[in-house]
Amino acid sequence: MSSNDNDHRGLLPAGLADLLPPDAAREARAIDLAIERFAAFGYERVKPPLVEFEESLLGGPGAALGSQTFRLMDPVSQRMMGVRPDMTVQVARIAVTRLKHEPRPLRLSYGGNVIRVRGSALKPERQFAQVGTELIGVDSAEADAEAVLLAVDALRAIGVSGLTVDLNLPTLVAAVAAGLKLPADILRRLRRALDRKDEAGVAKSFGEKKGAELFIGLLRAAGPARPGIAGLAGLKLPAAAAAEAARLAEVVKLVQAADPDLPLTVDPVEYRGLEYQTGVSFSVFALKGRQELARGGRYSAGYPEDGVSEPATGFTVYMDAVLAASEAAPERPRLFAPAGTPWRDAAAWQAKGYAVIRAVAAAPDVRTEAKRLRCSHALIDGDAVPL
Fold it and tell me: What Å distances lie between residue 10 and 3, 5, 6, 331, CA to CA?
């Protein structure tokens, strides 16, 4: 069979791709850097399985990803399993089952691949690497701020510069609507108008009923954090919503105190993609490009439907976006070692930063063979000779 006849074997399903050199090594290195930064703040790594029973995977916050989960029958137990579309739910399961007796707050980290049924227009990939942390068992502004600051710390360690953080309150609109006792039909129209950032549409969705000015105030609070928080503070929100806005203000204050130069924005009405979040949430972007690098926020870890849940916050870093936003490190120089070079001689050159490419067959010309194998240097008479 000719190579052309075999090319079809390189075709992959839509949304799936091979990660080739040097990108595969860059991704692995970036994951290691992030996990090391998490460990420096006391986050311990866990490794959940690729597949598990669907009642565990799709319980609690996992229900929001049910339509994105590949399912298969376990031939051993004859029970349905799911392939993980996200690792947060798995880490939460570990926390409330295997580690339920560990002292709280519990700090866990993870890294691995997930796969989803379909990609989106902005993110067509269906398989991608996630790395992140979960801070489980405490509900405080300090914990929310720690998640934001740790995500930023890890991204900077990987080499992404010019970061900006957008803070959200995905449950705020529902809290205001509940306080005003808005009927479901008005709330549906209101959500559509808020998604479009349409002030006139917000007013129109209320008809004769009062309350539109509060939601227009929420829309106008979107933007840089300082004026946005001041705008929220000036609104006469129902009690539960006012408490959420106060919590957001406290988190902004803590993050700004820790990192005064980090640009912060707020968007109190954004909730799309944050379906299982229950409080302060955030996304991290780089000024270079508008792809989301990390996303996180507060949620209930565990299975509220079974009465087993704990307050938690955390975040996930999306490695494909991170690689696109960070500069590639200089490639390690490659040193060609001709046939007959003792194996032990490699160590000294590796200590100087070279990757040693050993000849496994004799070649008539060392320099020609070294260049063919993409080497930058060749070992000639005991020296690393540049090519």
Answer: 11, 11, 8, 26
